[in-house]
Amino acid sequence: MTQGRSDGSRGAPARRPVRRKGQVRRQAPVPEVTVDVHDPDGVRLQKVLAQAGVGSRRKSEILIDAGRVQVDGHVVRDQGVRIDPARHVVHVDGVRLQLDATRLYLAFNKPAGVVSTMSDEQGRISLGDFVYDRPERLFHVGRLDSDTEGLILLTNDGELGHRLQHPSYEVPKTYLAEVPGPLARDVGQRLRAGVELDDGPVQVDSFKVVDSQPGKALVELVLHEGRKHVVRRLLDAVGHPVIRLVRVQVGPVQLGELRQGRWRVLGADEVSALFAAVDL
């Protein structure tokens, strides 16, 4: 954790505000500073906003007038400003817009038996086999073990991918696990309190029973840990080894009705929500 910066005065250093696990970080208010962000060869700002899905050009002009649009961290109210969408960073109400058309963000539903690599020297089926016809050079954000199914993100945005995997941002992941039943009454309490594994304690952010049938149960776990096989190890430690495991959500992105072996391009709202989750 970064230490608080000192201004030379005595006393305790400044502390980072406490944030609940999984909570989207909010950007601090941006002071209105007169900075020249105008690019005479660029695109009018209201057109950029409209093309990014914010709304009509008229609505975009209203947002600019209201001081709700920032370019490179500075509030812009001038309707005549032109910017380069590939170079400038634009926020509306503190939420970053995805303007770079070369960036791609995919949600993929990984079947069991597929390894979380873009290619495999042993000839096993990998993620790359499902996106081989994409011209972009994609990489996977995090991993799922071969037996685990569900949502994995693919992108060519290195900065976003790195932050989504960095533990300091605590991006939550949601899993559905089928386990042997019946469940002990205190399983949820034990998982929320923390379980000691061989590489240290782990606790879930939330736990609930989705369905219960004779001999088995379906449970939902939310956690921000990224350790190898962590969900399987947690459930095994409390006496309910995983029969089947599916990841259904990463941060704000949900698997939804996406079929196994298929991918979809993330919507602008989903990409902006991912940016907000990791302070971009």
What does the secondary structure layout of this molecule look like, with pairings?
Layout: E1 43-44, H1 45-51, H2 57-65, E2 69-71, E3 74-75, E4 82-83, E5 90-92, E6 95-96, E7 105-110, E8 139-141, E9 149-155, H3 158-165, E10 173-180, H4 187-193, E11 195-197, E12 200-202, E13 206-213, E14 216-223, H5 230-237, E15 244-250, E16 253-254, E17 263-265, H6 268-277
Parallel strand pairs: 9-15
Antiparallel strand pairs: 1-4, 2-3, 2-5, 5-6, 7-9, 7-17, 8-9, 10-14, 10-15, 11-12, 13-14, 15-16
Please give a structural write-up.
With 280 residues, this protein is of the alpha+beta class. The chain contains 6 helices and 17 strands. It has helices spanning 45-51, 57-65, 158-165, 187-193, 230-237, 268-277; strands at 43-44, 69-71, 74-75, 82-83, 90-92, 95-96, 105-110, 139-141, 149-155, 173-180, 195-197, 200-202, 206-213, 216-223, 244-250, 253-254, 263-265. Strands 7, 8, 9, 10, 13, 14, 15, 16 and 17 form a 9-stranded mixed β-sheet that branches. Strands 3-2-5-6 form a 4-stranded antiparallel β-sheet. Strand 15 (244-250) and strand 16 (253-254) form a beta hairpin. The model is unreliable at 1-18 (pLDDT under 50).
